[in-house]
Every structure is written in C-alpha cells, then in structure tokens.
C-alpha cells in the first residue's frame, strides 16, 4: 500500500444543487494528497455505485442538502452490498439532522459530517479508516 | 466634494496624524491584525477620510433618490412612503400544508407570499418519477398539476397579495398555473402582482436546477418577457439572482458582477427576438444576498444599483426611467447560519437584514435560526419575521433615505465594488459573454476559488465564526425541528393517479401534441402551455414534451 494514493469519489445523490460543500471537501482532500473524482449533480445511487466500481475508489463521500438522505444513503449501501464492495468506506455530509444519524450509521455509513465541520477532521477520518 | 485647498489640508493633517498620533499609539499598543479585510477579503484601511473620495462628483455619482444613477435608492421617499415587502420564502409538504403556512404568515403581518417548490417540481418531474424518490415535498411544496396549485392558493385572493415564485427551468408552466388559478378566482392576469424567478443562467452557475440547454432556456425566458409585456404589466418577469452565486461562495464583488452580467445576457436575448428595451426592462427585477459584513453589503447594494443604471443607459440606450432602476429582493445569507448555538443566528440575521434595509431593498426574506439544521419551525419563522418588523418600526433607520450616504468608508467601498465588478463584466464580455464563460467554467471556478479560500480562512482561524471556531460550548441536540411528513410522497402519488383517471385525457394529449409542434418552431410557448395546464396536464408531462424537443443540459465540472 505504501505510496498508493487514497482514491475518493465525492458524489451528489438526489436533486439538490448545493454543491459548495462537496466541491470544497473535494479540493481539501485533493490538497491533502488524495485522488478525487467528483460526480456532479443529480446522481442516482446506481450511477454512484457504478462510478465507484469503475474508478476503483477506497472512499465514497455522499453530499446532500435536500433531506432525501434517509432514502438515498441506504440505497447506496444496499447496492454496494449487492456488488460485494462493502469494503469501500462511505461517509456523508450536508444538512443531516442529528436524529437521523444513528439510522445511517446502522446501514454502514461510517461518518456523518454536518455543517461547521473542519475539513482536517474529514481528512484524518479517511486516513484512519483506509489503511 | 471638497475644494482643492481644503483637500490639500486634510491630506497634510492626515499624514501628520499618522506619523505622530497613530505611530505613538502603535508603539505601545499594536493592532489586532496585520491586515484587516472585508467579509469578501478586500483590504480595509484604518481610517477613511475625504481623501478617499477625491475628485468624486455628488450630482453625477450619488444624486438624489429616485434619480439617475439611483445610488441612493429607486424611490424618492423610500421607507418614509412604505416599508419594504416582508416576504418569507416558505413551502413544504403538500399544497394543503403550505397553504396553511401562508395563511399563518399573512395573519402575522407578512405582506407578500414567496413560494418554495420542492426539487422535483423545480426540475420538472412529477412526484411519481423515479428521480423524485425521497425528494417530494422536502425543500418546498410539491406541485404536479393545476389541481395542487388551486389548493396552494385556496382562500388567498390573488389580486390582494403579491406572490414570488422561486421557479426557473419550468417557470413558464408554474406561471401558467398561477394565471389559471387567478382566472378561476375571477381575476384577470393584468391584475396580478408578483415575481417569477425565471433566471436559468445562475442555475448553471450556482444553483443546479436546470433542465434544458442554454439556447431553448433563453427562449422560454424571453417568451415570458413577451407574454407578460402583453398580458401581465404588473408582473416582474425575472428575478436576476446573485443570491445563489453568493451562497455558492462568491465574494460581494463577484455577486454583483456575475448577476449584472446575467442581466446583460437576458437583455441581449430579449432585444434579439425583437423586443424593445423599454418595453421589457422595467419589469426586470433582481435578487441579492445579505451577508455579515454590514458596511460592505450596504455598499454592494448601492454599487449594484448605480452600475445597472449605467449599463442600461449606456450599453442599451434605455430611456424609460423604470428601465434604469435596479429593484431588488434580498434574502439573508443562509451560508452564514451555524448549526452550533443556533440561536446566535438571530443576531446574524438581524445584522444582515439591517444591511439590506440600509441598502434600500424592495423586499426582504429573513432566514430562521434553525435553518442550518432543517426547514424552519413555525416559531423560528415568526422570530425571523419579527426581526424585520423591529427594524421597520423600532430601529429608526427607515426614517430618512439612504442614511449611510456620505460616509467616507461607505462611498469608497461603493466605488470600489462598482469598479471591480465592472472589470469582471469586461472580462466576461471578452470571453464571449456569460454563456461562453459558463461553458469554459470561468465563472464557476472563480466562485469555487472564493469558497475554498473562505473555508481555509475559517480553518486557519483568520476568520472567526462565533460558536464554530471560537467560543464553542457543549450543547445538547436541538429541539423542536420541523419534520416533513414522510407520507407526503405517497399521498402526492395517489392524488396524481386519481387526477389522471379523472381528467379528460383526450384534451391533454391534444394540447401536449400542439405544444410539441410549437416547440419546434419559434412560437411563444406561453399560450400553449396555458392550454396544457388548464386541461390538467401535469408539470412532468409538459416538461417531458419540452425535453424531447430541446434536449437536456449536461454540466461539466472542473474542480
């Protein structure tokens, strides 16, 4: 693994166009030495998982602001399982109410980063999870 | 504004003050920072004096309110005549629930409505589309057909309120539905007051709810200009929006520059289809953000007003006074709201709202304290509205027009923002205009760079956000957040099914076919869309027809 760059897919599931956070995180991860692929807006869970497979990523970061995370995040996890790629670390960010977090963690989202998060915390989290 | 002798003296005294008085102070007591900057990162001097305004001409650059170049406001008496319209953006769940919220807001003294549509509606999908899963009714109200729109405005006389609708790519469809609802209330289109956002360029740049490629999108926009010129003289045909550009991370200067550049593009497009500038320009309206840096924001609004007046006069040769006036709505900055110690947001919103009022806004939305966490709960919305009412009735800033004018700092900032925004506009012109600049990714990248810088400044604590990177506390989880009824999606789909069984499907088919045919020509599509809507064709059906003719926009992202 020495020297291999961590590969991250930053994805925007759902219909909302608020991609400021996704783009800032993508750049912060890239500046931290990771390879970052950004999907652009309106990605279905199927498209996200397909891109993750094609790009052979270690991490998927899901960004959403519309409130559809309770539907879309578990769907992504389901598809990862179906494709036997559950080793990919999945994290999420956006306006996600605290009460929804336990449910998202239960389906396998490892970290949820809400507004006010320092990008260094995300970088650290990813480095610890992807060994 | 000062004669030569006096200016010379001020300059000399200022130098002496700096060398003697300031220097002495700095020797014992250094300043907090090496460099002071505005909220947008522009350097701020220690002190502003008449020297900063050397050579400025009051009559030319400021003049009087209601007079070119409108720096001091578009009306002669401003808030001494009437306060701004207090207009809270609202909508969630079903049309029925949103209707209740509107009635509540009107009861609380709100003076205009502002409709938030859910994302499927904004992107032209019916609630039963696969892309709509999980999104129905979430960030706004779900509208599938005229039937929903009838419920949304049930019991609200449309000739008595002004309504703003945040809808862009399918603006023609929602405007048609509004006209049809009014008709059922016995109100003709020429009596309707309100605004349709109808600004697709900023969707490509910053907001993301586009459907069609630029060319047909511009056509739909100018179709509305033309239709409204003939049928709806009181309607604001577009709300050219800097709000979302700023939310995406731009600076104040970029907000002014990119918004006015979008405005130029719309004016060009309308002229190109044969409309006369003074026929449609009086109904153009704008929408800006109000961020935290109070004084920079006030200067921004003033600079935007002056620059637009000059553009309309010099670039487009507009003659009608109303064509030169930049009238705008303001919303406080959602991106400044913190999830941490959320009640502090009330204070932020107050400062931002004050900026909008001191900047001469025509209408205002104040954000609610809990919006970094969820859609606002009713009591949070009430506080936000009360904030405007306190500013209007208690603060005293409304009693005279443009009270900050003449402040050396404000006027210097106003000049600076105008100058720098104009530089951007010239760069965009050189790139071939906004559409080209978007295609090349220029505008998006400029905004992204600013957004990234902003985040880095917070993380390096060059920029302090109270409760986020300083003055933190341990707090429990927030209580009383609004939860959208999870049944909305299911309910909406059931209703849609019922509608499709009940309506006369022959007429729907015929109307959609006519629309398809007309879309392939240069015809104005508004009358055809009106026919579709009145026969209860759904939003999704209408947009599907247009998709099949126009194709869909694909964004290209550069990080």
Automatic annotation (TrEMBL), chain A:
<keyword id="KW-0846">Cobalamin</keyword>
<dbReference type="InterPro" id="IPR006158">
    <property type="entry name" value="Cobalamin-bd"/>
</dbReference>
<dbReference type="Pfam" id="PF02310">
    <property type="entry name" value="B12-binding"/>
</dbReference>
<dbReference type="GO" id="GO:0046872">
    <property type="term" value="F:metal ion binding"/>
</dbReference>
<keyword id="KW-0479">Metal-binding</keyword>
<dbReference type="InterPro" id="IPR036724">
    <property type="entry name" value="Cobalamin-bd_sf"/>
</dbReference>
<protein>
    <submittedName>
        <fullName>Methylmalonyl-CoA mutase</fullName>
    </submittedName>
</protein>
<dbReference type="GO" id="GO:0016853">
    <property type="term" value="F:isomerase activity"/>
</dbReference>
<keyword id="KW-0170">Cobalt</keyword>
<keyword id="KW-0413">Isomerase</keyword>
<feature type="domain" description="B12-binding">
    <location>
        <begin position="5"/>
        <end position="131"/>
    </location>
</feature>
<dbReference type="GO" id="GO:0031419">
    <property type="term" value="F:cobalamin binding"/>
</dbReference>
<dbReference type="InterPro" id="IPR006159">
    <property type="entry name" value="Acid_CoA_mut_C"/>
</dbReference>
Automatic annotation (TrEMBL), chain B:
<dbReference type="InterPro" id="IPR006098">
    <property type="entry name" value="MMCoA_mutase_a_cat"/>
</dbReference>
<dbReference type="InterPro" id="IPR016176">
    <property type="entry name" value="Cbl-dep_enz_cat"/>
</dbReference>
<dbReference type="InterPro" id="IPR006099">
    <property type="entry name" value="MeMalonylCoA_mutase_a/b_cat"/>
</dbReference>
<keyword id="KW-0413">Isomerase</keyword>
<dbReference type="Pfam" id="PF01642">
    <property type="entry name" value="MM_CoA_mutase"/>
</dbReference>
<dbReference type="GO" id="GO:0004494">
    <property type="term" value="F:methylmalonyl-CoA mutase activity"/>
</dbReference>
<protein>
    <submittedName>
        <fullName>Methylmalonyl-CoA mutase</fullName>
    </submittedName>
</protein>
<feature type="domain" description="Methylmalonyl-CoA mutase alpha/beta chain catalytic">
    <location>
        <begin position="38"/>
        <end position="552"/>
    </location>
</feature>
<dbReference type="GO" id="GO:0031419">
    <property type="term" value="F:cobalamin binding"/>
</dbReference>
């Amino acid at each position: 693994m020495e020297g291999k760059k961590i590969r991250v897919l930053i994805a925007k599931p759902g219909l909302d166009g608020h991609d400021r956070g996704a783009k800032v995180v993508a750049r912060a991860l890239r500046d931290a030495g990771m390879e970052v692929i950004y999907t652009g807006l309106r990605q279905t869970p199927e498209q996200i998982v397909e891109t993750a497979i094609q790009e052979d990523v270690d991490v998927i970061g899901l960004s959403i602001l519309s409130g559809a995370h309770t539907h879309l995040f578990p769907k992504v996890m389901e598809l990862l399982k179906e494709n036997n790629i559950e080793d990919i670390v999945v994290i999420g960010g956006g306006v996600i109410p605290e009460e929804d977090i336990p449910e998202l963690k239960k389906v396998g989202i490892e970290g949820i980063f809400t507004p006010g998060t320092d990008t260094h915390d995300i970088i650290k989290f990813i480095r610890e999870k992807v060994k | 504004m000062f004669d030569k002798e006096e200016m010379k003296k001020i300059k000399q005294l200022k130098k002496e003050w700096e060398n003697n008085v300031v220097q002495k102070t700095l020797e014992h007591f250094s300043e907090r920072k090496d460099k002071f900057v505005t909220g947008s990162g522009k350097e701020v001097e220690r002190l502003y004096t008449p020297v900063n305004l050397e050579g400025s001409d009051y009559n030319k650059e400021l003049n009087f309110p209601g007079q070119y170049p409108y720096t001091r406001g578009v009306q002669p008496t401003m808030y001494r005549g009437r306060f701004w319209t207090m207009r809270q953006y609202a909508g969630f769940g079903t049309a029925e629930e949103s209707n209740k919220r509107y009635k509540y807001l009107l009861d609380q003294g709100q003076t205009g409505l502002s409709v938030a549509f859910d994302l499927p509606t904004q992107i032209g999908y019916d609630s039963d589309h696969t892309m709509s899963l999980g999104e129905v009714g979430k960030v706004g109200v779900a509208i599938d057909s005229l039937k929903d729109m009838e419920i949304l405005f049930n019991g609200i006389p449309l000739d008595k309120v002004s309504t703003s609708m945040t809808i862009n790519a399918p603006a023609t469809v929602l405007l048609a539905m509004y006209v049809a609802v009014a008709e059922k209330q016995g109100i003709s289109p020429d009596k309707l007051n309100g605004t349709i956002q109808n600004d697709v360029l900023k969707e490509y740049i910053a907001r993301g709810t586009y459907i069609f490629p630029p060319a047909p999108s511009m056509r739909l926009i100018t179709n509305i200009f033309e239709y409204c010129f003939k049928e709806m003289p009181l309607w604001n045909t577009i709300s050219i929006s800097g709000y979302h550009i700023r939310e995406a991370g731009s600076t104040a200067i970029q907000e002014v520059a990119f918004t006015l550049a979008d405005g130029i593009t719309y004016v060009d497009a309308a002229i190109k289809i044969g409309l006369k500038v003074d026929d449609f320009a009086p109904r153009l309206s704008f929408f800006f953000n109000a961020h935290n840096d109070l004084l920079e924001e006030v200067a921004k609004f003033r600079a935007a007003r002056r620059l637009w007046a000059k553009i309309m006069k010099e670039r487009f040769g507009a003659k009608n006074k109303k064509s030169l006036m930049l009238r705008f709505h303001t919303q406080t900055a959602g991106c400044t709201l913190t999830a941490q110690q959320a009640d502090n947001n009330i204070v932020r919103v107050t400062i931002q709202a004050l900026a909008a009022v001191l900047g001469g806004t025509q209408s205002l939305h104040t954000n609610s304290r809990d919006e970094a966490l969820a859609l606002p709960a009713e009591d949070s919305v009430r506080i936000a509205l009360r904030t405007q009412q306190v500013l209007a009735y208690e603060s005293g800033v409304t009693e005279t027009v443009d009270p900050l004018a003449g402040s050396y700092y404000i006027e210097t900032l106003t000049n600076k923002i105008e100058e720098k925004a104009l530089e951007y506009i010239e760069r965009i012109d050189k790139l071939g205009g906004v559409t080209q600049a978007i295609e090349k990714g220029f505008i998006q990248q400029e905004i992204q760079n600013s957004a990234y810088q902003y985040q880095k400044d917070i993380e390096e604590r060059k920029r302090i956000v109270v409760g986020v990177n300083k003055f933190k506390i341990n707090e429990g989880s927030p209580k009383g957040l609004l939860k959208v009824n999870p049944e909305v999606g299911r309910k909406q789909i059931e209703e849609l099914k019922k509608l499709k069984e009940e309506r006369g499907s022959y007429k729907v088919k015929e109307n959609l076919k006519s629309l398809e045919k007309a879309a392939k020509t240069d015809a104005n599509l508004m009358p055809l869309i009106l026919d579709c809507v009145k026969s209860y064709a759904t939003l999704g059906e209408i947009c599907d027809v247009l998709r099949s003719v126009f194709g869909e926009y694909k964004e290209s992202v550069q990080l």
